[in-house]
Amino acid sequence: MGFDNELQLVAFFLGGEEYAVDIHYVREINRLLNITRVPRAPYYIEGVINLRGNVVPVIDLRKRFNLAATEMTDRTRIVVIQTGEIMVGLIVDGVSEVMRLSATSIEPPPALISSVHQEFLYGVGKLEERLLILLNLERVIDLDIAC
Amino acid sequence: MDTTQYMDVFMEESREHLQTLNQKILELENNSREPAVLDEIFRSAHTLKGMSATMGFERIAELTHEMENVLSNLRGTEIRVNTQIIDLLFKCLDALENMVEAIAGGDSDTVDITGLVGLLRQSVLEDSDDVEAFPKNEAFSPDFSINQYDLTVLHEAERKDFCIFHIRIDLDSGCIMKAARAYMVFRKLEEFGEIVKSVPAVPEIEDEQFDLSFQVLFVAQATQEVIHHALESIAEVRVGSLALVNLNDVQPSTTTRPGVVESGGEDTAAISEQPFIPNEPGAGRSPATGAKLLKANQTVRVDIERLDVLMNLVGELVINKTRLDQIAINAESTDLSETIEHIDRITIDLQNVVMKVRMVPIEQVFNRFPRMVRDMAKELGKEINLIIEGKETELDRTVIDEIGDPLVHLLRNAIDHGVEKPETRRQNGKPVEAIIRLVAKHEGNHVVIEVEDDGRGINPEAIRAKSVKKGLIAAKEAEQLDDQGAIDLIWKAGFSMAETVSDISGRGVGLDVVRNKIESLNGSIDIQTQVGKGTMFKVRLPLTLAIIQALLVNVGKEIYAIPLSTIDETTSIQPGQINNVQNQEVVLLRGKVLPLVRLHQVLAVSGEENTTGELFVVVVRKGNNQAGLIVDSLIGQQDIVIKSAGKLLQGIPGIAGATILGNGDVSLILDIGTLF
Questions:
Q1: CATH superfamily of B4-127
Q2: Counting C-beta atoms within 10 Å of the first and last residue's C-beta, which end of chain B has fewer, N or C?
Q3: What is the DSSP letter of B415?
Q4: Is B117 in contact with B63 (CB distance < 8 Å)?
Q5: Class of domain B144-296 (CATH, top level)
Q6: What CATH number does the domain located at B363-542 have?
Q7: From residue B659, how far is each of A36, A107, B558, B559, B642 by CA, in Å?
């Protein structure tokens, strides 16, 4: 397996399924911080947080993907990602691990894999018996795309 | 000689000289009889030549040398200033700019200049046979004038057995930092005695407004040899002449005003065999201030990034100071409170200083416009007089960096679409020469920049038709718009008035881009237009983007910041005072009807709204109107550091940005202009 063909991913849980994003996008992973609500923002924007002096918007991924809302728990995390100039936090149910995955084991998303809108998906990764849903982050944070 | 360490200096100074050249050649075109303008052009070209030769950029040196030949002939009146020469000089400047930027980009100078050099040589030969080598030392005259004060000082010095020296210092032709060398000379001389005066005067030397030599009149108790030796020890400095002056040789000037005789005997006197020159710059400067000024006026070039870091640090300090304030309130310790008050004052001072350091005159941006307007006007066959006002107005550096492109766009629009062709103007009874005014001025906490032309104006009918044709708006909708509404369609993305795509405009990059840019700077832009009379774009920009004063208020459990600049007053009312006028809640405030806005509702704050008891009202200004914001309570006034809420949340109506409170929580800053 060539190094170039390998992806390093951060995997996390959301609504009973396991998702993953490329680690290059991930700046840091935080416990829940005080979130300030932003009026008039799209409803899946939970608000903004103070990340060491930077004000960073936070998206509730459950709301973004139209999943049922749950209580925040001890395991709830904010995954802070950066694409280009945009920095944004994603609220997830919990972070599982950092892993490597061969590019060859990634398939395009089948039509009906999950309740999540097709547009947000990049593909599905298979790791032994686990199924990882790979996200297309650029689309997830593009507020012009409705869910 | 290793010149890499001078690279930054070279780049900075080259750009400055090129800017000066651009400006001055424009002046020359408009007023070819002013010798001072030519002198300045000459000086800049000469310095540029010297610098580039030292740095090993032969082509730049060669081109500037040829330019100098032409310039010196202009000066010697062998040839006259005409459009061809001006155009040629501008072409040379463009080539020089390209070369300098190529060097900045890491390329060596590879631009082909043989064509230009040929043209320059030709223009010299056409009008005169004797091509003189580039002249030297014409920037100032070698003689000295001495006023009454100087003379008194000299007499005093002589009484105390000081010797008086007249020294001419020559700098190496390749000297890069002439002002620095001159400063070293001054410092060295001050070790022995006092400088009575210098020609040119100290400020001019500091600005490098001299060719390669300068002169000083100097008193000291030392021998010529010692001084000579000391000066020669400075690199790139040679002593051109060092003569002892006998005060008895100082001749009274023929221009002595009769009747004014003071202790020294003569009112004015001149040293040397040359006649007295009136209005010598620097005359009357005392030796002490002369030397001190040299130190006081020194400047340092600082990387803007470092200033940004400094600004951020001050921002953090302000946040933490706020936190300290809260701790002090809880601790109830007078010592602590006093110390914090002290820190408070220092922080405010620090903030002001850093703010000032970041302020730059808008001149930097405006300076490139005269040339641009000239070139465009020529290209389009229009006659335009660009009037610039208020270029000394200062703005935050970050704003300055961003405002250039939008202004270029507005100017291009004015020249291309606004101003009519000369024949059309004549037919319409307007002066053939159009006037474009570019004005910067302060207005409260804002800087206003106006771009105004006296051209054809914008016809709302044409805008309606165009927008419908482009599919930006339905025909029916267009009919319903009033004229101002129709004109505002120009801000829509994809709008363009141009029938054909020209080099100048009509490429689809529209005014929406301009507006976005200005709004991203927390500014606003309006248009006023009158068919046949002209168009004015008015850009309003905040003085600074970093720290503002704001009033913090509670709405439910949330805290919002309202910029103090938008607040007229705060007051409290009883629910019974509220009336309903056409479904709008209003209150009578000192005889005026004030519409009320419940922040609880417009911000959709959760929780029950307080509807009984005293209501707090923040009276804010929105354009020419007032409104009262009902909040739950007032927390207090505070300096807040404006932070962007991120690209993602830009453009949410009513939210201008965010700030971090003393407890570390984020609070949103309300944008009154778009809130309701």
A1: HPT domain (1.20.120.160)
A2: N
A3: I
A4: yes
A5: alpha beta
A6: 3.30.565.10
A7: 11, 44, 13, 11, 5
Q: Which long-range contacts (CB under 8 A, 24 or more apart) does B470-477 make?
A: B470/B494, B470/B495, B470/B496
Distance of CA A122 to the CA centre of its chain: 12
Q: Which amino acid, B274?
A: Q
Q: Are A83 and A137 in contact (CB under 8 A)?
A: yes
Look at B648 and A37 and tell me if their CB atoms are within 8 Å.
no
* CA–CA gap between residue B277 and residue B186 (Å, rounded): 24
Q: Across the interface, do B648 and A141 touch by the CB < 8 Å criterion?
A: yes
Full DSSP string of B212-249: SEEEEEEEESS-HHHHHHHHHTSTTEEEEEEEE--GGG
Nearest 5°: phi and psi at B64? Answer: -65, -35
- Helix orientation angle between B224-232 and B178-190, rounded to the nearest 10 degrees: 150
Given CB atoms, is A57 within the 8 Å cutoff of chain B?
A: yes
Given the residues B68, B194, B206, B402, the one annotated as active site: B68
pTM above threshold 0.90? no
Q: Which residues of B touch A47 (CB under 8 A)?
A: 666
Token readout for B305 is 């990034």
Tell me: the pLDDT tens digits for A53-63?
Answer: 788 999 999 98
CB contact under 8 A, A38 and B645: yes
Q: Average pLDDT for residues B475-488, to the nearest whole number?
A: 81
Quote the DSSP letter at residue B649.
G
B547-675 CATH, one of 3.30.530.20, 2.40.50.180, 3.30.420.140, 1.20.1250.20: 2.40.50.180
Q: CA of A13 to nearest chain B CA: how many angstroms apart?
A: 24
- Identify whether B558 is a catalytic site residue: no
Catalogue all structural domains in chain A, each as residue range(s) with its CATH number. Answer: 3-140 (2.40.50.180)
Q: How many residues does chain A have?
A: 147
Q: What DSSP character marks residue B76?
A: T
Q: Give the Cα-Cα-Cα angle B553, B555, B557 (nearest 5 degrees).
A: 110
Question: C-alpha angle B569/B635/B647, rounded to 5°?
Answer: 90
Determine the pLDDT at residue B311: 77
3-state secondary structure of A19: strand
HEC string for B344-389:
HHHHHHHHHHHHHHHEEECHHHHCCHHHHHHHHHHHHCCCEEEEEE
Cβ-proximal residues to B347 (8 Å cutoff; 6+ apart), any chain: B314, B317, B318, B321
Residue A34 CA, chain-centre distance (Å), reads 20
Q: What is the pLDDT of residues A19-46, one digit of tens each?
A: 999 999 999 998 888 899 999 998 889 9
Q: Tokens for B120? A: 């320059």
Q: Is B46 a catalytic residue?
A: yes
Confidence of residue B131 (pLDDT cuts 50, 70, 90): very low
Compute the distance between CA of residue A120 and CA of residue A138 in angstroms, rounded to an integer. 8
Question: Angle B94-B98-B101 (CA atoms, 0-180°, nearest 5)?
Answer: 135
Cα angle value B405/B406/B412 (rounded, 5°): 90
